[in-house]
Amino acid sequence: MIGDAIGREKQLKAGSRKKKIELIEMMNPEWKDLYFENLDIF
Predict the structure, then answer these.
(1) What pLDDT sits at residue 33?
(2) What span, in angstroms and rounded, lies between the C-alpha atoms of 31 and 25?
(3) pTM > 0.70
(4) Given phi > 0 = left and psi -120 to 50 = alpha, else beta, which region is 15?
(5) Where does residue 17 rank: exposed (0-12), middle (13-18), buried (19+ CB within 10 A)?
(6) Phi/psi at 29 (nearest 5 deg)?
(7) Residue 40's pLDDT is what?
(8) Which of 11, 12, 30, 39 is 20 to 30 A from 19 in CA distance terms?
């Protein structure tokens, strides 16, 4: 599980800025600040 997360992080870091923006827009098209929505997870 941790190994999967580390592998995914390496994939993301290796990607281009354009790919990262496309991923954000796919997952969060309104570019909402998700900090407070996810605070209760931790």
Answers:
(1) 93
(2) 7
(3) no
(4) beta
(5) exposed
(6) -60, -25
(7) 80
(8) 39
| Side chain identity at residue 23, one-letter code | L
CA-CA distance, 21 to 27, in Å (whole number)?
10
Three-state SS letters, the chain: CHHHHHHHHHHHHHCCHHHHHHHHHHHCCCCCCCCHHHHHHC
Q: What is the pLDDT along the chain (42 residues), one digit of tens a residue?
A: 899 999 999 999 999 999 999 999 999 999 999 898 888 876
- 35, amino acid identity: Y
Position of tokens 């605070």? Answer: 39
Gap between the Cα atoms of 6 and 10, Å rounded: 6
